[in-house]
């Protein structure tokens, strides 16, 4: 059982944290600024000898990521002691798109099992992350969940498979509720021309990355020496956007 297993220390540079996910976590480029994936900010909360290989891509679901060979690429590189963080759910909901849609209690779980089994077969540790919440509020100012049964399906699968679970959906929903409808606009990609309630700007990406790093420590996936700055301010200026997307 991996959940709650003691952390084992690895030598400097011996581990890599791989990230499989969608646009909420993905690397963004200059043309998309100020949109920021939380995976761009995650390295600020990890020790330098624990690099992040961010394979998250805009618009992907647990299914389409596999179908496009992206999981195969990760599994070709991942090795013993590495971590594979898996966050899907936003695009799995797209019932109108058969290339991406999965059903929470059947095909969604089946695809997630492929990530878990693939990582374990290579001596790496899988970690499942429920989807970070969108910005949506009711008339009374309460933050609303938007992911249907997908978070519950992931929670059940994690328990069944003994996989560490970071419940980012619940944690982000609580954070948005605490901040409120107006204040959360500062965390999402709200600009003069766009009101985006799904994707983040630098403050939002930093806030979510902080949640992820703190939960990696709390769930004993990482040791105290693996994380840093959990209680420190991280300047927005640390976020940068490369000029061109890599081929």
**Biggest sheet strand line-up:** 2-1-3-4-5
Strand content: 5-15%
Overall mean pLDDT stands at 94
Largest sheet: 5 strands, parallel
Which radius of gyration do the C-alpha atoms yield? 17 Å
Order of SSEs: EHEHHEHEHEHEEH
User: How many H/I helices?
Assistant: 7
N- to C-terminal distance: 38 Å
Descriptive report:
By secondary structure, this protein is of the alpha/beta class. Helix content is 31%, strand content 12%. It contains 7 helices and 7 strands. It has a 5-stranded parallel β-sheet with strand order 2-1-3-4-5, sandwiched between helices. A two-stranded antiparallel sheet has the order 6-7. Helix 4 crosses helix 5. The longest helix has 18 residues. It is globular and about 45 Å long. The termini are far apart. The N terminus is likely disordered.
């Amino acid at each position: 059982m991996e959940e709650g297993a003691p952390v084992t220390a690895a030598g400097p540079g011996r581990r890599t944290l791989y990230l499989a996910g969608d646009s909420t976590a993905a690397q963004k480029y200059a043309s998309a600024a100020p949109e920021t994936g939380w995976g761009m900010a995650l390295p600020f909360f990890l020790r330098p000898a624990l690099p992040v290989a961010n394979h998250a891509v805009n618009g992907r679901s647990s299914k389409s990521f596999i179908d496009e060979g992206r999981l195969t690429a990760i599994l070709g590189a991942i090795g013993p002691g590495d971590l594979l963080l898996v966050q899907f759910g936003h695009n799995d909901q797209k019932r109108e798109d058969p290339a991406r849609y999965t059903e929470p209690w059947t095909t969604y779980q089946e695809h997630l099992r492929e990530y878990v089994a693939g990582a374990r077969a290579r001596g790496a540790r899988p970690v499942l992350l429920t989807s970070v919440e969108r910005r949506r509020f009711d008339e009374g100012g309460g933050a609303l969940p938007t992911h249907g049964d997908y978070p519950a399906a992931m929670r059940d699968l994690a328990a069944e498979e003994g996989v560490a679970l970071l419940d980012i959906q619940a944690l982000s929903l609580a954070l948005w509720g605490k901040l409120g409808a107006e204040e959360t606009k500062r965390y999402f990609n709200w600009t003069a021309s766009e009101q985006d309630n799904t994707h983040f700007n630098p403050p939002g990406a930093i806030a979510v990355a902080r949640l992820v790093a703190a939960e990696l420590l709390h769930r004993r996936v990482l040791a105290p020496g693996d994380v840093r700055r959990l209680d420190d301010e991280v300047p927005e200026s640390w976020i940068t956007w490369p000029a061109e997307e890599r081929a």
